[in-house]
Specification:
Layout lengths: L4 H10 L12 E6 L3 E5 L6 E6 L4 E6 L5 E8 L6 E9 L4 E7 L6 E7 L2 E6 L4 E6 L4 E7 L5 E6 L5 E6 L4 E7 L6 E7 L4 E6 L5 E6 L4 E6 L4 E7 L5 E6 L5 E6 L4 E6 L5 E6 L4 E6 L5 E6 L4 E6 L4 E6 L5 E7 L3
Antiparallel strand pairs: 1-2, 1-28, 2-3, 4-5, 5-6, 6-7, 8-9, 9-10, 10-11, 12-13, 13-14, 14-15, 16-17, 17-18, 18-19, 20-21, 21-22, 22-23, 24-25, 25-26, 26-27
Length: 330
């Protein structure tokens, strides 16, 4: 279905809170840095709900059952305004039901939900934490010893944890040993300022977008070593995501506003599309048909058809869209 920009714009901003529709199934969740989570019907592009969050949220994750969303409230750049909370949002009620205070942990950023728990990074503490929403407590914290631990990802079986550490020019690979919460860390040096990364669908490689030098570092996960580096000519890579079949890798460039589409096996450039200013968060639908790409400074989310590699339309969800999550059909 082709999205119509004028209709989307009208629906997104004309709707008042009293007119919000029920949360759709499936649903696209878009986090706006203004301090809100937008709930979007992906079939129509309509914003069906908007929920206030903490200050300057950056990332969002959804529970496996699709009932709850969690946002990392990073806080602004003002002195003394480091974020230290996670918003817990009931998606059916379209309401923040709890704002969990992480103190003394500060600057929460990357999120990953699995096995009933929310894993998160805290940049100021050089650490990963784990929040149990049932017990409403942080039940585990693990230090990385690396500067600006930013994004986090877990393997499908939960036996490995990966983080991008921007300030230390490294990727951390944690592997579970004997006991549930016993881990060994291998720190893999990569290029300058790695921020976005993803693991290939077969979990044999990790590709890190080195935001400071325009390269991609390919890590072999068996040997935990960089086996290849190639230049994708970006000014500041922000996110890197594979399609579910592994055939494409998408990289957003904050510096140029380009979405760089790569062959997911060779790294060869397939296409480069300029989407506006401050291209940041990327979400690829589970069927691999579309990508949603946030243009943070332009206050819209581009909808990219991954079959034709063309832009279908733009969603207007709020001010400063960035992180996104997907709720599967129920």
């Amino acid at each position: 279905m082709r999205l119509h920009r004028t209709i989307i714009l009208a629906v997104a901003f004309a709707a008042a809170p009293a007119l919000w529709a029920a949360t759709p199934s499936p649903a696209l969740l878009v986090l706006n840095k203004e301090g809100s989570l937008a709930i979007v019907n992906p079939a129509t592009g309509a914003v069906t709900g908007r929920v206030p969050t903490g200050e300057d949220p950056h990332e969002v994750a959804a529970s496996t059952d699709g009932k709850f969303a969690f946002t990392s409230n990073y806080g602004s750049a003002r002195p003394g305004s480091e974020g230290h909370t996670i918003s817990v949002i009931d998606l059916a009620a379209q309401k923040e039901i709890h704002r969990f205070d992480l103190t003394p942990l500060r600057r929460p950023h990357g999120l990953y939900f699995t096995d009933g728990k929310l894993y998160f990074t805290v940049e100021a503490n050089k650490a990963i934490g784990r929040y149990d929403p049932i017990k409403n407590k942080v039940d585990w914290v693990l230090g990385t010893g690396q500067n600006t631990t930013h994004m986090v990802h877990l393997s499908k079986d939960g036996s490995m944890i990966f983080t991008a550490n921007i300030g230390s020019n490294s990727i951390s690979i944690f592997e579970r040993t004997s006991g549930r919460d016993q881990w060994n860390q291998v720190v893999v040096p990569v290029g300058k300022n790695p921020e976005g990364f993803d693991v290939t669908p077969d979990e044999k490689q990790l590709w890190a977008a080195d935001g400071g030098d325009g390269h991609v570092s390919v890590i072999d996960l068996a040997s935990k070593k960089v086996t290849r580096t190639f230049d994708i000519h970006t000014k500041r890579s922000n996110r890197l995501k594979f399609t579910p079949d592994g055939n494409l890798a998408l990289v957003s460039d904050l510096g140029t506003g380009d979405l760089v589409i790569l062959d997911g096996h060779t790294g060869a450039e397939r296409k480069r599309i300029n989407l506006g200013r401050s291209i940041a968060g990327i979400l690829i639908t589970p069927d691999g048909s579309r990508a949603y790409v946030a243009a943070t400074s332009d206050n819209n989310v581009a909808v990219v058809n991954l079959k034709t590699l063309t832009v279908e339309g733009k969603l207007h969800t709020g001010q400063g869209p960035d992180g996104m999550a997907w709720i599967a059909a129920r």
